[in-house]
From TrEMBL:
Gene3D superfamilies: Rieske [2Fe-2S] iron-sulphur domain. The keyword Secreted does not apply. Pfam families: Rieske. PANTHER family: 3-PHENYLPROPIONATE_CINNAMIC ACID DIOXYGENASE FERREDOXIN SUBUNIT, FERREDOXIN-RELATED. InterPro entries: Rieske_2Fe-2S (IPR017941), Rieske_2Fe-2S_sf (IPR036922). Transmembrane segments: none annotated. Keywords: 2Fe-2S, Iron, Iron-sulfur, Metal-binding. This is Non-heme iron oxygenase ferredoxin subunit. Residues 5-100 form the Rieske domain.
Amino acid sequence: MSGFVKICPLAEIGEDQPMAVEVDDTPVVLVKTNGEVFAMNDICSHAEVSLSEGEVYNNTLECWLHGSCFDLRTGKPTNPPATQAVPTYRVKIETGEDGAEQVYVNLAESSEYGES
Ligand code: FES
């Protein structure tokens, strides 16, 4: 039922530097790359490790343990050993009253880029 939850100022997220956050007790990783911000579940679908400790590579986030890369838009792995997608979440950026851009994540809606 939860809608968009305010996470942090956009300026706090470094380009291509995955950032782990908790949203309603769910581990989420935020990635800013090429001017866009993406959110996905921070747990690899192959084993229980934190994707936020991996590296951003060509619009994917690479799991540091076995090297599967997860598409930032779809959460789907682009190479083995992972075969299951990681949930992705909708992100919006809004300018607050102080003029700073804030990042919001909506856990209830997975992001479906390309459809809307
Ligand atoms: S734990 Fe992520 S690919 Fe194996």
